[in-house]
């Protein structure tokens, strides 16, 4: 997914002056005349110009910020980029006037090169256990597709595009400027055909000459078991249609997972707080522990303290790319009832009389330590 702000190395809040300043610096750094044998630099130069054309225009920038690159398709001329005259003017300033015919070829290549379609983002929310065990969801997305009526040509079937009589099909016009440093040639898109080199006299009635249509599609998304909150599922080729035979973009599905009332997840392990009785803690024995699939018996030792954590191996969340699971950890919390029956009170009173020796010894040791602090 192309990010015009990232291409120009600026923040989304950058002012027009900051945008232009960064553009001028990058355009000079990657200009084809300064990098004649560096194809990567030349491609980056084209991306810089495209990003600048959008972000230097407040209207296009607002559309891009709201709808992404796809929202600009109807605002960039018929298959071309109507704002290149401003870009060329800025380049004229950067290099002290004009540039060589080396860029002339670069512009023509840029106009005709296949362009990959932009990516699409969709967001879905699923239940905790759907994330654990996997599921499928059908979602609706809006994306651009090649117009079936005109097969992407932009002209009404049965009619033909005509070569632009002003630029003779090149899509560009050359002008010569005189300055104190001599004569300089400047190349800019033809204002009649918007840089396409062709004139559509009878635009397609379905797509209005654009060659694409925005449609709503239903997409089935398979959510793998073990997926976690904020993870992203990519579906190749389910994004927007490309230009000039370019491949389709991708669809990125951002997954939000609801929290569970009992289970808490960290990685592929899950954690629960389990209340137990005083007698369970003192006597030990089997207690019931809920897992993701069932309720199991677990033996806890006699004399278990409140806050002790136990592990059940392999009862956690499945790993996405391998046949293994995390573990389940449960922390016991001794439940102290607020109200008890007369019978329970009588039993506890008898217990208090008989349990004194051990606790008295522990208390004495504790207060001996406290006494040492103050001596």
TrEMBL record:
Ranges of residues in domain CR-type: 134-216
Keyword Metal-binding: yes
SUPFAM superfamilies named among the record's database cross-references: Chaperone J-domain (SSF46565), DnaJ/Hsp40 cysteine-rich domain (SSF57938), HSP40/DnaJ peptide-binding domain (SSF49493)
InterPro entries, alphabetized: DnaJ (IPR012724), DnaJ_C (IPR002939), DnaJ_domain (IPR001623), DnaJ_domain_CS (IPR018253), HSP40/DnaJ_pept-bd (IPR008971), HSP_DnaJ_Cys-rich_dom (IPR001305), HSP_DnaJ_Cys-rich_dom_sf (IPR036410), J_dom_sf (IPR036869)
Start and stop residues of the CXXCXGXG motif repeats: 147-154, 164-171, 190-197, 204-211
Swiss-Prot/TrEMBL keywords: Chaperone, Cytoplasm, DNA replication, Metal-binding, Repeat, Stress response, Zinc, Zinc-finger
Domain J per the UniProt entry, residue ranges: 3-68
Note describing how the cofactor binds: Binds 2 Zn(2+) ions per monomer.
Main location: cytoplasm
Domain of life according to the entry: Bacteria
Zinc finger (CR-type) residue numbers: 134-216
Residue sites binding Zn(2+) 1 per the record: 147, 150, 204, 207
Record note on quaternary structure: Homodimer.
NCBIfam families for the chain: DnaJ_bact, PRK10767.1
PANTHER family named in the record: CHAPERONE PROTEIN DNAJ A6, CHLOROPLASTIC, DNAJ HOMOLOG 1, MITOCHONDRIAL-RELATED
Functional description taken from the UniProt entry: Participates actively in the response to hyperosmotic and heat shock by preventing the aggregation of stress-denatured proteins and by disaggregating proteins, also in an autonomous, DnaK-independent fashion. Unfolded proteins bind initially to DnaJ; upon interaction with the DnaJ-bound protein, DnaK hydrolyzes its bound ATP, resulting in the formation of a stable complex. GrpE releases ADP from DnaK; ATP binding to DnaK triggers the release of the substrate protein, thus completing the reaction cycle.
Entry remark concerning the domains of this protein: The J domain is necessary and sufficient to stimulate DnaK ATPase activity. Zinc center 1 plays an important role in the autonomous, DnaK-independent chaperone activity of DnaJ. Zinc center 2 is essential for interaction with DnaK and for DnaJ activity.
Name of the protein described by the UniProt record: Chaperone protein DnaJ
Classification lineage: Bacteria, Bacillati, Bacillota, Tissierellia, Tissierellales
Gene that this sequence comes from: dnaJ
């Amino acid at each position: 997914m192309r990010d015009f702000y990232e291409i120009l190395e600026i923040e989304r809040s950058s002012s027009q002056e900051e945008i232009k300043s960064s553009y001028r610096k990058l355009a000079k750094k990657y200009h084809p005349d300064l990098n004649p044998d560096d194809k990567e630099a030349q491609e980056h130069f084209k991306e810089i110009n495209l990003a600048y054309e959008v972000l230097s225009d407040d209207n296009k920038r607002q559309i891009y910020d709201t709808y992404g690159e796809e929202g600009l398709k109807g605002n960039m001329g018929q298959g071309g980029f109507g704002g290149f005259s401003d870009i060329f003017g800025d380049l004229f300033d950067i290099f002290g006037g004009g540039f060589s015919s080396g860029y002339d070829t670069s512009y023509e290549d840029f106009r005709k090169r296949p362009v990959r379609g932009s990516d699409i983002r969709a967001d879905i929310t699923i239940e905790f256990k759907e994330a654990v065990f996997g599921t499928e969801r059908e979602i609706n997305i809006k994306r651009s597709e090649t117009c079936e009526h005109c097969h992407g040509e932009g002209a009404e079937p049965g009619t033909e595009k005509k070569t632009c009589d002003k630029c003779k099909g090149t899509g560009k016009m050359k002008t010569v400027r005189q300055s104190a440093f001599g004569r300089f040639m400047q190349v800019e898109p033809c204002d009649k055909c918007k840089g396409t080199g062709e004139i559509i006299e009878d635009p397609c009635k379905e797509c209005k000459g654009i060659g694409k249509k925005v449609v709503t599609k239903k997409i089935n998304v398979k959510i793998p078991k073990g997926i976690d909150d904020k993870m992203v599922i990519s579906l190749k080729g389910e994004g927007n249609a490309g230009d000039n035979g370019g491949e389709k973009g991708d669809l990125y599905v951002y997954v939000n997972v609801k929290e569970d009332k009992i289970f808490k997840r960290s990685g592929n392990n899950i954690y629960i707080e389990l209340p137990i009785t005083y007698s369970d803690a003192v006597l030990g024995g089997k207690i019931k522990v809920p897992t993701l699939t069932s309720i199991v018996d677990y033996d806890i030792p006699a004399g278990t303290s409140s806050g002790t954590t136990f592990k059940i191996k392999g009862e956690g969340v499945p790993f996405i790319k391998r046949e293994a699971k995390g573990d389940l950890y449960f922390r016991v919390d001794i439940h102290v009832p607020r109200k008890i029956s007369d019978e329970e009170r009588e039993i506890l009173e008898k217990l208090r009389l008989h349990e004194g020796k051990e606790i008295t010894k522990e208390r004495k040791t504790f207060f001996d330590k406290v006494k040492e602090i103050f001596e």
